[in-house]
Amino acid sequence: MGDSRLNEYTTCLFTKTQKRKPIQVLADLRRYTIQLYSVQASNRSPSSVPSKRKTPRTEKKPAQKPKSSAARKSSANKKAQASKSTPNKTVAAKKSAPRKKNGAPKQSAKNKKSTGSGGGFRRFIPLLIKVGVVLVILAAIGVIYLDAVITNHFEGKRWSIPAKVYARPLELYDGMPITEEQLAFELSQLNYRHVFDREPTSGSFTTQGSHYQLATRGFDFWEGAEAAKKVSFDIHRGRVQGLQSEQGSDGIVRMEPALIGGIYPAHNEDRVLVKLDQVPPLLVQALLAVEDRDFFEHFGISPKGIARALVANVTSGEVRQGGSTLTQQLVKNFYLTSERSLTRKATEAVMAVLLDFHYEKNDILEAYLNEVYLGQAGKRGIHGVGLASLYYFGQPLRELEAHQIALLVGIIKGPSWYDPRRNPERSVERRDQVLQLMLQQNVLDQRSYDVEVKKPLDVIRKPLYEDARYPAFLDLMKRQLRRDYKDEDLRSEGLRIFTTLDPWVQNSFENAALNQVKSLQKQYGKKLSGLEVAGVFTSSNTGEVAAIVGGHSVRYEGFNRALDAFRPIGSLAKPAVYLAALERGFTLASILKDEAVTHTLANGTTWTPENFEKESHGEVPMMVALANSYNQATVNLAMDVGIPAVVDAMTRLGVEKTLPAVPALSLGAVSLSPFEVAQMYQTIATEGFATPLRTIRSVLTADGQPLQRYELEVEQRFQAADIYALTYGMQETVRSGTAKTASLWLPPDLNLAGKTGTSDDQRDSWFAGFSGNYLGVVWMGIDDNKPTPLTGALGALPVWANTLSRQNLLPLQLAEPDNIEWVWVDPLKQARTKAHCENSLHLPIRKDSVPEKEISCGGGGRALNWFKGLFK
After folding, report:
1. Which domains does the chain have, with CATH numbers?
2. Which of 176, 579, 660, 843 has the fewest Cβ atoms nearer than 10 Å?
3. Known catalytic residues?
């Protein structure tokens, strides 16, 4: 019975220990042992257990003489007759007969006790042997299980590595437009150190006037590795000049990109894996001096270390040292919980010995350096010395000095208690203790110690990247990852995602947005309580998203207004109306009627649009109506070309949602997000090519292989001539129309194009515009749709202009299409004129739409005065 039960429990043990933690397995072993003992005891009832007591001894009778054969025969016959005649009496007599007094001599109490005790112990010997066998078997099973856990985990995937997200890299080349302010910002984002009176080393630079020398860090890009370089150059009149590299280059020096965020596994552990040969030897020496002096001598646990810690703790009267080795610490962090119990400690010791038995010391040390917990950044745990170096100092490990290494090692004892940002005094004290230990263990000499102990902590004020640093951009990037890549590919760990974020543009946009909100709230008070701002800036040529703001709280991870706030776009819809008209033979010189017209809608109601200033202007050239954003002229034009044509134009510009085919659509009776508006205007900026806005340049796997993405199609949706004419009209908007205040921030020779937008009751303030290299869309309003005193020019435009004023802008110079002809036209007479006639305009017109009629100059004085009045 015992053997079958043992087999049963052994089978049960193997079944239940699968995928269990070692600490749970040990608890199971104990429980099964107790159960086995109980089952065996219950199976031995008193009736079935053989008596261990010996049979009592009787006295020997005196020897009798043997009887004769006749006598023996006579006696036998008598006994047989007696047996036959009274069989029951004999049995009864035997049962009832009293014991003879002298039949069995009594044992003394002492002898009786001794005999009974010895018999009881011997009775349990087989049981104890079986229990011992079971315990040995279970212990062996436990060790085998722990051994399997260690090898499977240590040799397999040790960590869930988060994806790293990088900004665009800064590229330096001769003639590159960049200010010293921007360069200083870019270097600070990468935490390059400004050094004096010595040659710059990796991650540092020197300056002498406008002359720069800097030593870059190497980096592995998606096209290949970029080696570390020493370069020198000057910045003269906002441009890079005389760029030279000691290592030689192809004329372009690419800096490493800034790390801007990550995508973390469910447990929110973050780390940057390092190999042991990438760790400074001084850090390893300091770590062993403080945490485990006998690391290379012990077998996973250190009796010497335990004894040393015991003596130190007893001597000091408090717990000053622990006896755990680095191997035990790794086991605790890697496999076990933080439970304080003897069972957990015993399991830790066994696993440490097993780990030390299976693996080289350097492998264990490397794993420890990547696993050790060193801080907390919000929900994100900072693990490993590689990430901790960036988190606390903004530098890779190889650039750390001795005092920084000492702080890093000191933090291991208590990352929260010794957090250098929250507890700087405590951190200095701990760092100095580590430096003292390094001196005592001959890791540092006295001279180095004297220098390092006087240095400040050198911890950067804020980590170089935080989850909440660019929340709106990272939100968009994650959505586009799911759109552009396969789900199974994105499940790979350790991805490196290279994005289009431009930290300088982002910083400029954030500052401009926050300053405008503060300024307007100060000016208008409670009328603008709760004022919000959102928008997108892109490359006007490629559609790469350079910056995005989701609200005035730019670090807030909540509602992303740039993507999810759908607001009426007002006059930002008008370019679609004019584009539809240009496709159908209208020109910028075509005369429109800016007058009130009542429209009967499908439901029987009437609608009579008004101009913003409540005045009509009669007959006006189309360019004038566009530049001054005349509502009545635009609606009448939309009715002429047909509302379906307007819907079609807006759809081809990039609006994906279903649009209402009503006259009010021409004045922006559709709600879009700033991102959707940016997609719409991107098609205009790219000369009629629908270019999907994107945030991702490349995604690499952990081993450097690029992930295959779904193709993003670039499609030509409008003729270049029509876009060219429309853009010229939008340039006139900035020169002399509703956006002319942009000249307060931006020089006129940039030839910027733009459009203001204001919804009903001024609930929404919009501006969209572009230069030769940037496009921006900005929205301002209140979340609950309250009316505001803001127009597009008063609210959103200053944010747009302020942002672009800090960029190195290229003038907007569109390539002239073959079928465009520049013509002097008299708009009122719809006729060509000689150059520079008083009442004529020089306009780009599609060749098949140029007026056939030609008139001479003169005779238009009164018309000229009326025409000039339109632009006052």
Report:
1. 1-41+126-156 (no CATH), 167-258 (3.30.2060.10), 262-452 (1.10.3810.10), 468-567+670-697+752-812 (3.40.710.10), 570-669 (3.40.710.10), 820-869 (no CATH)
2. 660
3. 291, 571
